[in-house]
């Protein structure tokens, strides 16, 4: 019987192979860095306790009527 770690590794290999079947290496790299950047911004917002939507006016998002 496979250990939980081995199972997770096999799952990740399967996901990697599926992604490579859909995207080029450059697209995978671009997607990875985009996800990393979003993660950093989310962590910064949590650390500074920013309220969602509090910067909408500064970016002109109130014109879209999203609030």
Write up what this structure looks like.
The chain is mainly α and 67 residues long. 63% of the residues lie in helices and 0% in strands. The chain contains two helices and no strands. The chain has helices at 4-22, 25-47.
Structure at a glance:
With 67 residues, the chain is mainly α.
Question: What fraction of residues sit in β-strands?
Answer: under 5%
Q: Please give the largest β-sheet.
A: none
Oligomer kind: single chain
What is the number of helices? 2
What ranges have pLDDT less than 50 throughout 5 or more consecutive residues? none
- As a whole number of angstroms, the C-alpha radius of gyration is 19 Å
Extended strand count: 0
Helix and strand content put the structural class at mainly alpha
CA(first)-CA(last) distance: 52 Å
Write the layout of secondary structure elements.
Layout: H1 4-22, H2 25-47
Notable features of this structure?
mainly alpha; 67 residues
């Amino acid at each position: 019987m496979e250990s939980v770690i081995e199972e997770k590794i096999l799952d990740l290999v399967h996901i990697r192979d599926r992604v490579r079947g859909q995207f080029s290496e450059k697209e995978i790299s671009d997607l990875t860095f985009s996800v990393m950047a979003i993660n950093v911004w989310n962590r910064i917002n949590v650390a500074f306790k920013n309220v969602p939507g509090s910067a909408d006016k500064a970016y002109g998002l109130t014109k879209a009527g999203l609030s």
